[in-house]
Amino acid sequence: MSQRKERKCLNCNERPLCPEAKAEPLCLDCLKRLNRHTCDFCKIDHHLMERDENAENKLCFDCRRYFKRYQEEPTFCSYCAHKACFGGKSICYRCEKQEVKYGSPSACEDCGKLSAFSSPSILSKSEGRTICFWCLREFLTQKRREKSMSRKRTAKQTDLISKLQRASCQNCRQSSYIIDNLKKQLKEQEKTSKMELLQLESTINALQSNRKDATVDVITEYEEKMMKLKEEFEKERVVLQEAAGRADDLRSRLQDYEQKVAEARGERLGLENEKKRLFEQLQDVKKQLSDVQTKNADFDMPVSTKAPIVDVESDDDDDLKWM
């Protein structure tokens, strides 16, 4: 029994097709490398092959196949109003496949066109709303963009908070180190000054007890030394008190810094809540707009002419594989 020949990429014609992208016969490398473009006929975004970059009509793979088969300019669909009807039909190939499988369409809740089919796949991806295939693609694209922006915004806020926390911890460690050194120096200097004072007082007492044998000049010299030491001790005490005041100032600045970090966290939560509220208001406005468009469409809705049911080569589920 002969083995089935493996299909190659239509762009490079070298590598096998990517199994995850059944709607576009391209390999994984070409899917990553090629630019996306909107089809001139059905208005579906697709990967534009390199040989079609300078073409007059930049078409998707389905419209290319039908255009090559019928060799004629397509007409506008009576359902979706896109220029994608081939072979003299009044309904495009995408709406025709949906109508065969899911029945007559209804008005789209977003654009108001008569092109929304009750497909379970579309309902599950559109959060239960009745929308057309094109509005579903736009909805999912916008949802991915918002999710990506939210991740980037959260990453920036997390990075900022971590930097603030590291800075606050570093300032706290530095302040504690300075305060400990100041206390240690103060204790050592007090101990040294007390010992010197005790030695001087003992010397003065010994001189005073033996005043008859000591001269007045020696006593005066020791008294002057003692006064100088007392003055130096008072100066050092003032310096240490100023250093302790600076340490208290550093501690208060650290507390203010931590309070700013807490306020930044509160502002971030407030922005997220405001974003949720605005998104809900946007959804309400969209719903009200769709209701108005549906009411207007009831007065001047075009009469659709159903085309005969024909066999279509590709399944409609392939159009949704990209999502």
Characterization of this structure:
The protein is mainly α. Helices cover 60% and strands 3% of the residues. It is built from 6 helices and 4 strands, in the order H-E-E-H-E-E-H-H-H-H. It has helices at residues 28-33, 61-70, 93-102, 120-125, 133-209, 216-299, and strands at residues 36-38, 45-47, 75-76, 83-85. A two-stranded antiparallel ribbon has the order 1-2. Helix 5 (133-209) runs antiparallel to helix 6 (216-299). The chain starts with 27 loop residues before the first helix and ends in a 24-residue tail after the last helix. The model is unreliable at 303-323 (pLDDT under 50).
Main attributes of the structure:
60% helix; two-stranded antiparallel sheet; mainly alpha; 323 residues; single chain
Task: Walk me through the topology.
Layout: H1 28-33, E1 36-38, E2 45-47, H2 61-70, E3 75-76, E4 83-85, H3 93-102, H4 120-125, H5 133-209, H6 216-299
Antiparallel strand pairs: 1-2, 3-4
Taking pLDDT < 50 over at least 5 consecutive residues as the criterion, the unreliable ranges are: 303-323
Helical content (DSSP H or I, runs of 4+) = 55-70%
Mean pLDDT: 78
How do the SSEs run, as a string of H and E? HEEHEEHHHH
User: What is the percentage of strand-forming residues?
Assistant: under 5%
Structural class by SSE content: mainly alpha
Rounded to an integer in angstroms, the radius of gyration calculated over CA atoms is 42 Å
Number of strand elements: 4
- CA distance, first residue to last residue: 37 Å
Major sheet characteristics: 2 strands, antiparallel
| Order of neighbouring strands in the sheet with most strands | 1-2
The gross shape turns out to be elongated
Helix segment tally: 6
